[in-house]
């Protein structure tokens, strides 16, 4: 049954039997056969075959998908703990958008590691949209993002008020912009439009690279105050200078320890707001 469920998850995510077969190291007919067996077992159609390639999940498949992910997650956790029976260590994967990963969460990780000595933590950095996607697919346990996102499967808790500042030399004719799906890209574009500015643009897909350019006196940009140091010229914004960081957790969590980790993170962050100023 677990093989059928794993195949179902792969087909649901790829919407393609051939790609799922490649991911699972199975033949395409085997994937099709396993989906058919699962449909027969459940007495419902999970995917509509529209032509040779296009696979459309039914409402039943959409209902089943997050629940299957939870089943597989619980099994993986149990298996990992039994394999590591000498200490029953657990694993917690935290995904963060860029500013959260580089300048925000590391301030709290020492306390987190000390408080949970039997948990192996992993920290991943990606855009906010990807954090949400990875959490919805149960590949990530806890998330931190820099903009509000919608998800029926996740809790989204405002955790910190981040101050945005205008960094860079005032006489620069260049403006540094992140990629389209970056949270900071939105705030920069709003500022340029509001002030009717049309500077020459330099696109940079990494915030650290933007800060390095700002240190060299190249360009201007709206960035988090957390990221600027003494080597970067900056000035406060008069309005629209605050944004929320959000803590993401799963609405349904089987692992008690993850609930404790999320609650502890929320507590220590809220208790140390002044230390981030």
What this model shows, in words?
The chain has 277 residues and is α/β, with parallel strands linked by helices. Helices cover 43% and strands 24% of the residues. It has helices at residues 2-14, 17-24, 28-42, 59-83, 98-104, 109-115, 128-136, 183-194, 207-215, 256-270; strands at 47-50, 54-57, 90-96, 119-125, 142-145, 154-168, 174-177, 200-203, 220-224, 234-236, 242-250. Helix 1 (2-14) crosses helix 4 and helix 2 (17-24) crosses helix 3. It is globular, with a radius of gyration of 23 Å. It starts with a helix and ends in a 7-residue tail after the last helix. The mean pLDDT is 87.
Helix-strand pattern: HHHEEHEHHEHEEEHEHEEEH
Overall radius of gyration: 23 Å
| % residues in beta strands | 15-25%
Number of helix segments? Answer: 10
Q: Structural class of the helices, strands and pairings?
A: alpha/beta
N→C terminal distance: 52 Å
The total beta strand count reads 11
- Characterize the main sheet: 7 strands, mixed
Q: How does the overall form come out from the CA principal axes? A: globular
Mean pLDDT figure: 87
Low-confidence stretches: none
| Percent helix | 40-55%
Please describe the topology of this protein:
Elements: H1 2-14, H2 17-24, H3 28-42, E1 47-50, E2 54-57, H4 59-83, E3 90-96, H5 98-104, H6 109-115, E4 119-125, H7 128-136, E5 142-145, E6 154-168, E7 174-177, H8 183-194, E8 200-203, H9 207-215, E9 220-224, E10 234-236, E11 242-250, H10 256-270
Parallel strand pairs: 3-4, 3-5, 7-8
Antiparallel strand pairs: 1-2, 5-11, 6-9, 6-10, 6-11
